[in-house]
Amino acid sequence: MFLDLLKSAYNFLLPPGIFVVVLLLLAWWLRRREHGVAVILLVTAFILYAFSTDVVSSLLLRSLEGQYSPPSVLKGDVIVVLGGGATSDTPDVGGVGNLGGSSMNRVVTAVRLYKETGLPILMSSGRVFANDGNEGRIAERVMVSLGVPRSKISLDDRSRTTTENALDSKKILRENHFTHPILVTSAFHMPRAVDNFAKIGISVQPYPCDYKVSVAQPVYLFRFVPTAAGLSHTAMALKEYLGIVALYLLPFRS
Description:
Elements: H1 2-10, H2 17-29, H3 35-52, H4 54-65, E1 78-82, E2 91-92, E3 95-96, H5 101-117, E4 121-124, H6 135-145, E5 153-156, H7 162-175, E6 181-186, H8 190-199, E7 205-209, H9 228-249
Helix pairs in contact: 2-3, 4-9, 5-6, 7-8, 8-9
């Protein structure tokens, strides 16, 4: 119990907990002189606190991760893997450039599925920002090092968004006469990815991986403490929901 209290307490000395404390102190200080400002600060502190807790962030992520489950029987003729980030100039085994955590989980899942099925792999991801690595090429190197023949890998190393993943993958699928893709991406990202492919007329079999939160959600003290991880997970979930909304509001080229 003492350890739980200690862990909970020191998180209020770190971001974002310290910002919550500062906002509350400012609201208290201004409560009489600037009542309206104090209320705004109080509401801001509450929102920041709530979005930073595991109990709220996990709820948001589970609402995405729970929409699809890995199928017990695979029905497809190609495994399509979407990227999730990479560094460009960091040292790695057999080369330069590393896949991010989510991206590596997706690639490893695809390799494991390949070893079960022998299906070819289409890796879809390029370089998003100037300091990012070309994820498609890095992923290809990793997959080859894990035992996938290069001849079994098709590469889209230009796409930068989920929409571009779908559009560029569609061209490669058609060129290679693939009609039943198995889609591999992070569980939180799968709903948006499926919607992107569906909007251009491609039906996929979702194979989610890279789960961020557990299915069971027991209640204990630390889940109500604001943490950077909690805020990051909330931002991750909100980004997906905004992306889904944007998919249906913005023009979409097919």
